[in-house]
Q: What sequence folds into this?
């Protein structure tokens, strides 16, 4: 299963998102800003969030949904995501993303912070043009949650006794909230029934949790070329993630302090070996599968369409592509 095939029903609309991203970030007459923005756009990710906006809008609509508005919302949400990554790379001192030097590494901290702020402003300018207060509130709440999640995550660094429920709270806020807003805002554009809006929000929330757990798993077991960034970022900054919590739980009591020392020293290879050869990797896969199962279950009330099928396939794609390394 390829992402390209899953995106096939919205292929034309995704091209529209790319065009609008370029137009929005090149509207400035300042060549320095345009150069940095184009560098950022060239380091293209999977565009999961824009795809979810488009698929959710079309999957919950009985008639032709307002595609230009969906594209604006999708573009705005992708810019919010991009802004958060630019700021994340400053906070985490990251040098590589999508196999390219980060903005922070290439241009420095000051420009990175200013660029992130600029991306947020362009995003909300686009979203406000849709003249829909419900969508604006939905995305604003998600952005606030993202910031809260980042603050909590930073405050919990080096806490090797982090509780699982605390980790899930962080993930819900920092990552899953924007996935949920992507799906909910798409259904708001389609003016679907309240029950479908709730269903899409639930899909996005559970998909987002599963996605982040997967990302945390890959940060330990994947290689730099495949990951697009240096692995072991979480360990290097002292962040406990679910795979690490599962591994710690599997370690015999008399070895726990030794294991915590490995983590605190950022010993990635040792942690990776233990994760793969313990039951922690399989436990992590099962938990991702559980969240993706909840996401799929949320779609039960949706009519059968190619768009719904793509939403289902996305959940399978995350598991099949990332847990068969």
A:
């Amino acid at each position: 299963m390829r992402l390209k095939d899953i995106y096939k029903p919205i292929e034309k609309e995704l091209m529209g998102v790319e065009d609008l991203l370029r137009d929005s970030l090149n509207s400035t007459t300042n060549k320095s800003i345009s150069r940095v923005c184009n560098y950022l756009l060239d380091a293209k990710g999977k565009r999961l969030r824009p795809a979810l906006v488009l698929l959710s809008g079309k999957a919950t609509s009985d008639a032709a949904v307002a595609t230009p508005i969906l594209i604006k919302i999708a573009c705005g949400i992708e810019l919010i995501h991009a802004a958060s990554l630019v700021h994340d790379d400053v906070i985490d001192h990251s040098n590589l993303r999508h196999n390219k030097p980060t903005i922070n590494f290439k241009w420095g901290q000051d420009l990175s912070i200013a660029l992130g702020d600029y991306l947020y402003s362009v995003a909300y300018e686009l979203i406000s043009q849709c003249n829909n207060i419900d969508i604006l509130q939905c995305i604003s709440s998600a952005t606030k949650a993202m910031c809260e999640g980042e603050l909590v995550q930073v405050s919990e660094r080096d806490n090797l006794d982090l509780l699982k429920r605390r980790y899930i709270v962080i993930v819900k806020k920092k990552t899953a909230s924007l996935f949920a807003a992507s799906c909910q805002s798409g259904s708001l554009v389609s003016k679907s029934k309240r029950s479908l809006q709730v269903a899409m929000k639930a899909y996005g929330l559970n998909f987002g949790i599963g996605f982040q757990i997967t990302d945390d798993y890959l940060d330990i077991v994947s290689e730099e070329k495949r990951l697009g960034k240096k692995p072991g970022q979480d360990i290097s900054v002292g962040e406990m993630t679910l795979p690490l919590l599962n591994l710690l739980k599997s370690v015999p009591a008399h070895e726990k302090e030794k294991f915590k020392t490995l983590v605190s020293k950022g010993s990635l290879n040792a942690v990776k070996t233990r994760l793969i050869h313990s039951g922690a990797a399989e436990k992590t896969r099962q938990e991702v599968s559980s969240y993706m199962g909840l996401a799929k279950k949320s779609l039960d009330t949706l009519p059968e369409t190619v768009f719904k099928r793509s939403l289902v396939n996305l959940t399978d794609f995350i598991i099949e592509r990332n847990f068969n390394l």
User: Anything to note?
Assistant: The chain has 17 helices and two strands. The mean pLDDT is 92.
